[in-house]
C-alpha cells in the first residue's frame, strides 16, 4: 500500500491544487526550506506557509498592509482557553450580534471601529465557515520574528498542525481578501502596495 493511499494526498499536492484553483502560485523552496503558496488580491500578496516552533508545526497565512489608523484586533472562536481568559478579565467586546458574540472572543484597541468592521454580514459568514479560526492584526511577528517598517502591519492567521483541507484553506484566502477590502472600506487601510514581501 502506498503512502499516498494510507494518508491521502500530501500537503504539497493539496496546496498545488489550491494554487491552481485560486490562480495563486505554489513555490517549491527545496528540501531545507518550507514550501509556500502565494496569492495576490489587488495590491496585496498573501502568503500561506508552515512554521516549526517548540517541536510543533503551525500553518499560517499572512499579508502585510499599510495600516492607516493603527487599528488592531484579534478575533477567535470561543473555547476552553477563551473561557479561562474571560474568567481572568480578558477584554471581550460585544458587537450586538448574539450569535457572533456567543461564539467568538473579540478584542480590539477601538470598540467603535471593530463594531463597524463586523457590520459586514459576508465577513461574519466567512468567519463562521472556518473551524478554529483565529485572525489578528499584528505590528510584527514577536520577539524572534520579522519586524515591519513603520505603518506596515500584518494580517495574521495561525493554527497548530498542517492544514490540508482544501475548502477551509480556500475560505481562509476568501476571508483575508474580504478583511482587507473591509479595512479599506472603514478607512483603516490603504489600498496600496505596502512595498514589503514576506
Widest β-sheet, arrangement of strands = 1-2-3-4-8-7-5-6
Mean pLDDT: 89
Structural class: alpha+beta
Question: If you compute it from the alpha carbons, what radius of gyration comes out, rounded to the nearest whole angstrom?
Answer: 17 Å
For the record, the count of structural domains works out to 1
Count of β-strands = 8
Low-confidence stretches: none
Number of helices: 7
What this model shows, in words?
- The structure is a single chain.
- α6 (121-129) packs antiparallel against α7.
- It is globular, with a radius of gyration of 17 Å.
- The protein has helices spanning 3-7, 11-22, 80-87, 98-103, 111-117, 121-129, 166-185, and strands at residues 25-27, 36-41, 44-53, 56-66, 73-77, 104-108, 134-138, 152-160.
- It is an alpha+beta fold and 198 residues long.
- The chain has one domain (3-185).
- It is built from 7 helices and 8 strands; from the N terminus they run ααβββββααβααββα.
Write the layout of secondary structure elements.
Elements: H1 3-7, H2 11-22, E1 25-27, E2 36-41, E3 44-53, E4 56-66, E5 73-77, H3 80-87, H4 98-103, E6 104-108, H5 111-117, H6 121-129, E7 134-138, E8 152-160, H7 166-185
Antiparallel strand pairs: 1-2, 2-3, 3-4, 4-8, 5-6, 5-7, 7-8
Amino acid at each position: 500500500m502506498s503512502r499516498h493511499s494510507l494518508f491521502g494526498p500530501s500537503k504539497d499536492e493539496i496546496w498545488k491544487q489550491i494554487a491552481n484553483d485560486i490562480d495563486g502560485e505554489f513555490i517549491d523552496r527545496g528540501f531545507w526550506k518550507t514550501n509556500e503558496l502565494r496569492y495576490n488580491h489587488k495590491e496585496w500578496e498573501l502568503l500561506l506557509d508552515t512554521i516549526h516552533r517548540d517541536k510543533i508545526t503551525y500553518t499560517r497565512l499572512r499579508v502585510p498592509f499599510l495600516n492607516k489608523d493603527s487599528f488592531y484586533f484579534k478575533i477567535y472562536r470561543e473555547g476552553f482557553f477563551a473561557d479561562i481568559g474571560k474568567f481572568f478579565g480578558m477584554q471581550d467586546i460585544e458587537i450586538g450580534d448574539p450569535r457572533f458574540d456567543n461564539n467568538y472572543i473579540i478584542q480590539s484597541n477601538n470598540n467603535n471601529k471593530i463594531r463597524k468592521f463586523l457590520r459586514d454580514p459576508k465577513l461574519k459568514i466567512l468567519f463562521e465557515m472556518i473551524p478554529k479560526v483565529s485572525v489578528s492584526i499584528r505590528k510584527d511577528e514577536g520577539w524572534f520574528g520579522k519586524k515591519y517598517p513603520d505603518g506596515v502591519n500584518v494580517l495574521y492567521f495561525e493554527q497548530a498542525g498542517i492544514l490540508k483541507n482544501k475548502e477551509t484553506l480556500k475560505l481562509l484566502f476568501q476571508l483575508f481578501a474580504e478583511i482587507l477590502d473591509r479595512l479599506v472600506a472603514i478607512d483603516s487601510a490603504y489600498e496600496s502596495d505596502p512595498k514589503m514581501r514576506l
